[in-house]
Specification:
By secondary structure, the protein is α+β, with helices and mostly antiparallel strands. It is about 25% helix and about 30% strand. It contains six helices and ten strands. The strands form two sheets. Strands 3, 4, 5, 6, 7, 8, 9 and 10 form an eight-stranded mixed sheet that branches. The chain has a two-stranded antiparallel ribbon with strand order 1-2. Strand 4 and strand 5 form a beta hairpin.
Length: about 220
């Protein structure tokens, strides 16, 4: 099944970038460079203990996750990819209740622009938080867990794409240290599996944001 590149943290309730051209340029030019290299933002350490537990998805999770989030086709596909070492589907839990999802894409990027400019850079995709549990930092926690997973394995960067109109999510990513890659917008695609098994493919313009990590 094709990848959903656009990641939208619906738990984010912080003020979004407005649609004015000046503030849009703040997002476009946020990737400050020094001598041709990105400046790595410092990690903000949390002073509180999370009440959510994050781990990779397991086979016996699929039924409950399908009930809560829907799109069993997506979940099954990501579990297979995870089993084959092509990515990790992280799940956040509040006790026995699933709270959120985030897929870490470890394959070569499907978008030619990303593949050329960011070869071998992992991508954060399909961030989703249950409506009743949004605005509680679950999306940020999932992203932090994925970043630490990459750091532990020696990765220096991580990237994501966000729809050009999704300013709320862009504000979250900016706060977490993600910066525009300064290479313009690209066309990415969302894919929806219909009840009859057919796939609807919709193009959309996206920004690509990059963050430098601190490998162990």
């Amino acid at each position: 099944m094709p990848r959903r590149l656009d990641i939208s943290d619906r738990s984010c309730q912080t003020p979004a970038f407005s649609a004015t051209s000046g503030e849009r340029q703040t997002l476009d030019r946020a990737g400050t460079r020094s001598s041709g290299a990105w400046l790595a933002p410092e990690r903000q350490e949390s002073s509180t203990v999370s009440r959510y537990f994050v781990r990779p998805v397991r086979r016996d999770d699929i039924e409950l996750l399908s009930e809560k989030f829907g799109d069993r086709h997506f979940l099954e596909d990501r579990l297979i990819r995870q089993t084959n070492g092509l990515g990790v589907l992280f799940t956040a839990w509040s006790g026995d209740v699933p709270a959120g999802l985030l897929y870490l894409w470890l394959e070569p990027a499907e978008e030619p622009e990303i593949a050329a400019a960011l070869p071998e850079v992992a991508l954060l995709t399909h961030l989703e938080v249950l409506p009743s549990l949004r605005s509680q930092g679950i999306g940020s926690e999932l992203m932090d867990h994925a970043e630490r997973y990459l750091e532990a394995r020696g990765h220096e960067q991580v990237a994501l794409a966000v729809h050009e109109d999704n300013t709320r999510a862009a504000a979250l990513y900016y706060r977490l240290g993600y910066r525009d890659w300064n290479a313009g917008k690209i066309v990415c695609y969302t894919y929806e599996v219909q009840p009859d098994g057919s796939v609807v493919r919709e193009p959309e313009k996206c920004y690509v944001l990059v963050k430098y990590l601190n490998p162990a």
